[in-house]
Amino acid sequence: MADRFLERTGAVDAREMRDQVLDTMELERERGITIKAQAVRLPYRHKDGKTYTLNLIDTPGHVDFNYEVSRSLAACEGAVLLVDAAQGVQAQTLANAYLAIDAGLEIIPVLNKIDLPAADPDRVAGEVSALLGVDAEQIVRVSSKTGEGIDLLLERIVEEIPPPEGDPNAPLRALVFDSYYDPYRGVVCYLRVVDGELAQGDELAFTATRERHSAAEVGVLTPQARPVQTLSAGEVGYLITGVKDISRIKVGDTVAHNRDVVPLPGYAEPKPMVFSGMFPSDGDDFEDLREALDKLKLNDAALVYEPETSRALGFGFRCGFLGLLHMEIVRERLEREYDLDLVATSPSVAYQVVKTGGSTLEIRSPADLPEPAAIDHLDEPVIRALIVVPTEYVGTVMDLAQTRRGTMRHMHYLTPERVELTYEIPLAEVVFDFFDALKSRTRGYASLDYEPAGYRTADLVRVDILLNGQHVDAFSAIVHRDRGYEYGRKMVTRLRALIPRQLFDVPIQAAIGSRVIARETVKARRKDVIAKCYGGDVTRKRKLLERQKEGKKRMKMVGSVEVPQEAFISALRLDDE
Amino acid sequence: MTSSARADAAGGERAAYVHVPFCARLCPYCDFNVVAGRDELIDRYVDAVVAEIRATDQWGSLDSVYVGGGTPTRIPPQRLGDIIRALDHRFGLSPGAEVSLEANPEDWTPDLGNALRGVGFTRVSFGAQSFDSDTLRALGRLHDPGQGREAVMEAVAQGFSVNIDLIFGTPGETLDEWKRTVETAMLLRPHHLSVYALTVERGTALSRAINAGAPAPDEDLQADEYEAADHLAGAMLRYEVSNYAVEGHECVYNLITWAQGEYLGIGAGAHGHRDGARTRNVRRVDAYVDRVERGVKPRQGVEVLDPWKKEQERLLLGLRRTVGVATGRGGRLLLDSEAGARLVDAGVIEERSGRIIVLRPLLTDEVSRSVLALSG
Q1: How much is the ipTM here?
Q2: Which residues of chain B lie closer than 8 angstroms to A523, CB-CB?
């Protein structure tokens, strides 16, 4: 869609048009998603004869990047809400619509992909109309593939979205709504000037970080970066200060000349929600992993990590992510762009431990959980989940949410056929496999979006896995007491199949504290000897044994038990039930 | 002489191994260098073997000659005699030397036995494999249990030192059937017994059948069968992982191999160990014959081990023996290693009177790999 605007307004020559000009990262193009926000300035000549300057910010749609979306919305006057004419209103549509409404934006609903054979614009227009209270007839129908309806949409944008307010003579206040790291130029911030004027060479104060930097370059995106002398109230552009470390420029921060201005509202620190240990398969790659994370961090302020040591997996990092997609993207980039082979532990969340003395402690890894005696209770993060589902699956979704400890807060019929359900669910359940379960039980028809909804006290236990009596930290998990047995049984069963027979019986136990809740045994290997070894083939037998020995090198020792690297990877995989 | 002294002394003795690749038909589990249906080559092959012997550098007298296969008895006894005579002429046979050959029960007759005695053979090793008809069929063998029994009894009566080869773990064979096979073998009063776990070798018909879904040998059942045989072997002593003998009837050729002694390898694909080098002849029968006839040495590969590899090999071979192996430098490193300590803890090995002994022979390869993992 963004591509089509660029083409129609002449910002990009149709000849040079490449799909998704704005989604530059390789992964984004491949997945057809937007991870980082992008901004572009479009000169548009309306049929009234006047030329308007439109500033388009293409935002990520995924829940993991909600904060970025909210900052992008805060930089705008209006929002074009795209609804897929075949799929209809999705949970993500609702979540983004609510964010836009909260931000007080003028919303122009648009049905996209009307060229698809499966498109049902009339039905979807009905859903959108019910959602936003607009006249279904008024909803613009477009195809970003064929270009149909694009001109009408541009007209509507000019007619309906108010021009920016803001006082060019007031003290400067500009909102940083995104940033990225350019290896040659350092951190580039995208910003919207709300009041005043930002000129090249200005000395600037960042109100949240309390840092001062000078404006080495300011400019606009057409979409190529084009330096300008000034950006004034209402304009969107970029700022380069020479800062090299992206964590020193915070999305949501206010840029001013004077530290004393009233900051623009809504600033928040990015908060990792999901945690996972990442370990190089080959211990020798630890330094490479550190370097790769350091480099990724340059362009990803939300990524946090600290060194972690696992008895089973060696040296690695405990990484924090905004959500599951963010985690997946980071992992894929590490493996693809940095050619690393990684073992990742099951994702977990951060728990608040309230100790018996009353003090609290945040833990990001099951290994950090104090002794049971020292714990008064545990609070876990919960989310408000928005689920949109055809009515026939409502019962199924309710059953699923029930087993995942969800509490229904709200149920709303968008249309007679589609229902919006709001649940409060522990994040840990969602992180585990909720989304996959939801998709499979509704044959892919349900969509899910969520936002953090604080912490709730829960009856949680840590399930440990012991191999021959030795605790294997990588397999520990914090789960609800009611699901402890299920987790323990699943892990011991899996491991029994994955661990080769040893010189002795290897008990595999799942335990909560000192209480064993599940047990399997890998029986001792009984026969491991070449039957015939005579003069004729001493050399061959030796070579056979040499090959077998090489296989043993890929084993990790857990106490006295040899565990193949693959066993760790397979056991930690969630989706191969 | 104590048994360990005898076992180690074999390291200083000399043997010759002569390979006979001919078979009436191929067994599905066999991955040796064998051919079926090429009997027209037999005469030229024997000539080539004799020529190879004559062209081999002088050496001391032989303490053991081992004619293995294949099926050596595809070659008529007179022609086998030509080979023994050639070895005797070239190197001399030590007094009381062991002259051994392998034979299939179905080929054995009193006349054959007498003829073989006449040309100098003192020992015969029968590929009996089983005394159960179904198991023999499953193994693709051509004889029946009765032929196996008769061949052994006749050979014993003719004064041969007799070995019976048995295979356990054939899919379909029960533990009780295996026990009856071992009991039958023991009733025949052989001097020597070899019991082998059926092993699925790559590239064999058995391996292809298993890949296509046929049942594979069961590791736990094989362990039970091994233990059952050990129990039933009674007065025979196990002197290596798979070998039992009445005292004094241990196979000299094998003792030499496990003591890292030297032996000539003669014939197609035969391996030798001489002057510190491990040698290998060309494998294909026609290529072997062709080379020798053209006066070219049939040798294809030579490997000289560096001192550390040689030390590792000494342990690999010696550890297969019941008497174990003198600890030496490699053994010390093993005992001092983490893996060695685990093996001791698990009761797999122990050091006793300066020797490392494998107490659980079924786990010998675990020890071997730990030896190979050491750096010298």
Answers
A1: 0.91
A2: 220
